[in-house]
Amino acid sequence: MSEKENSYSLLVVEDNDFNRDLIVRHLGKEGYDQLEAAENGQVALEMLRKKPFDLVLLDIEMPVLDGIGVLEALKSDMRLRDVPVLMISGVEEQDSVVKCIELGAEDYLPKPFDPVLLRARLGACLEKKRLSDERNSFMQQIKTEKQRSDDLLNVILPSAAANELRTNGTVQPRRFDNVAVLFCDIVGFTSYCDGNSPEVVVGYLQSLFKAFEAITDEHGMEKIKTIGDEFMASAGLLRQCPDPLLSAVRCGLAMGQASKELEPHWDVRVGVNIGSIVAGVVGDQKYQFDVWGDTVNVAARMAGVGSASTVCMIHDAWLRVENDCDGRSLGRVEVKGKGEVEVIECYGLR
């Protein structure tokens, strides 16, 4: 008998004292040292519900609750239905044995007991349980790893894109209209980075970007990515948003306020724009969800134009939010790819 077999916990259910003691002694001789006994089915059920057993040796004819009743109760209980049961039967109980097998009993052991047969059938039942436990453990590992993979995918990609990738194995590139794009840039980050330790820089950056993620979600937007010290988000892309540009402006102003409150109190500049974009997933070894187009380029350039804690946009975009925002004109500014355009700096909400 191996140490592994000794670790099995067995429950003997038999109303006859002599037979119960006989089975326990036989099992002890076979090396099983985790043995408990019950004198009827009701007691057995109470014991099974209090602690786990690896196998039950169950007599059919018993007072209070017979073996068939116990077996029916076990198989209907989702916590106990997989516990293997070895029926104990007399010669005259063969019809009952058949019913027990049909109900899900693993095997039966006829009275009087043959030690060789007891060893063989008990060993077969426990080996079957061992293989079942290994399979269940393996399936749980697969489930756990899949959940980790899904969690990682949701970190890398927006939720809608991650769901599409899981379902179809790819994310179809698409053109989206009326999408607001936001860029938030930290003022003076390069010099700060050069003058402080990596632990300090990354620690503060992590705190700020976590706050930005919460603000983005609060305003119905989705984070697209970070590029160095720059934070990029969108509204109206993969998540429904009734007014994408106004949400982006509100989000940008909230980011400016948050950056002032969090150490080391960085200043940030925010640029937004709205229009059509192309979105999709690129890369194979490392997925990257990204967006492209003139709308994106203009929003990125707006982030470098205005004052700290304001939100800059071109005049055409401003016309969409002018009734809800306070702003001032920065005059005509040269914007790469657009020429000179009037830029408006939003400094508050009405």
Order of helices and strands: HEHEHEHEHEHHEHHEEHEEHEHEE
How far the N terminus sits from the C terminus, by CA atoms, comes to 81 Å
- Provide the low-confidence segments as ranges: 1-5
| CATH fold descriptor of the largest domain | Alpha-Beta Plaits
Class of the largest domain in CATH? Alpha Beta
- Main sheet characteristics: 8 strands, mixed
Strand content: 25-35%
- Helix run count: 12
Count of DSSP E strands? 13
Radius of gyration: 35 Å
Percentage of residues assigned to helices: 40-55%
Structure description:
The structure is a single chain. The chain has 350 residues and is of the alpha/beta class. The protein folds into two domains: 3-140, Response regulator (Rossmann fold); 170-349, Alpha-Beta Plaits (2-Layer Sandwich). Helices cover 46% and strands 27% of the residues. The protein has twelve helices and 13 strands. The chain has helices at 3-6, 17-29, 41-50, 67-76, 94-103, 115-156, 159-168, 189-195, 198-218, 244-261, 294-302, 315-321; strands at 9-13, 34-38, 55-59, 85-89, 107-110, 174-186, 222-227, 230-235, 268-282, 288-292, 311-314, 325-335, 339-349. The strands form two sheets. Strands 6, 7, 8, 9, 10, 11, 12 and 13 form an eight-stranded mixed sheet that branches. A five-stranded parallel sheet has the order 2-1-3-4-5, with helices on both faces. The longest helix is centred in the middle third of the chain and has 42 residues, at 115-156. The protein is rod-shaped, with a radius of gyration of 35 Å. Mean pLDDT is 89; it is low at 1-5.
